[in-house]
Design a protein that fits this description.
The chain has 14 helices and no strands. It is an all-alpha fold and 343 residues long. Helix 5 runs antiparallel to helix 6.
Amino acid sequence: MAKRNWTRMQQAAFLRSLGMLLEKGYSVSQALDLLKFQFERQKNYPIKDIQCELKKGLPLVEVLADHRIPSDVLGYLYFASEYGSLSKGLKEGSTILQKREDVKKVFYQKIRYPIVLLSVLAIMMFFMVQYLFPQFTSLFHSVNLELPIVTRVMIGIFEHIPAFIYGSLALSILLFSYGHFKYYKLTTFEKLLRLSKVPFISIPLKVFLTHYFTFQLGHLLKGGLSIPQALQLFQQQSHMPFFQEEAGQLICELRTGESFSKIIQERVFYLPELSQVIHFGQSNGQLGQELILYSDMLLERTDEQIQKSLTFIQPILFSLIGGVILTLFLSVMLPIFRMFQSL
């Protein structure tokens, strides 16, 4: 059966609507019947396919995995079903997808006009390199004058741009091939272990893993499970392979008698403050609640940082484009002024 390519926004709408219906007391079957009528005009929604697979006895999470729902969202649904709040997990998964699409939308809006300007600038540079600068060069040679240094620098840069582009492309292909063959056989755990040491990647990676881990673990603990029992659920799920292996290692270390906060403090995958949150939560007997609050705070803080970063993209791009345009203007006008001065 061919799987339908529904968009992330459609997936978010479906998960949100399904979660709301389950919250109101509908069964999954009843909720899907209602959603089938709600989304019947939009052919991308695979609700009939989902119903058919559920009738075969497959769990909802496995069915959604077969319909291209992201693995981390599936993890939310898996754990939510384990601690008895599937509706909340569906709504949380919808929120995650919605926020990602909102960030993409803002990012595209920020870079749309700079990209148009860069395209126009690239066309201008092409005509200058092909027609204008060669005319300047031959004209100045004919009258024994030297081109201004700005113009000479720009000509030199333009002459080397093709070699730079081809060289960068070849280097990128080589690096990609090297990375692919070197890391192809590594487990997800080993890949993330190496990525956690790469600058500019380690912090976002740690934020993501810390938020996911604290949110899921917090809800499991709040639902009455002990830390080892919660970690066993992490080990049993298959949607996030990293946490399968990570949970196994954490369980082994807990059996040695080491405190959970101390073990987390020595892990390189999480933010350093997580061990302090765990220690505080264990000391007041509210570890589950503290982890949930921390995950919410971390998500809000991350959203603020992303929005703040996006606000800098457009000004930086405009500044770079303005600098290039000014340099191009000088490289054209200065030779004209020098020609007038030589008359």
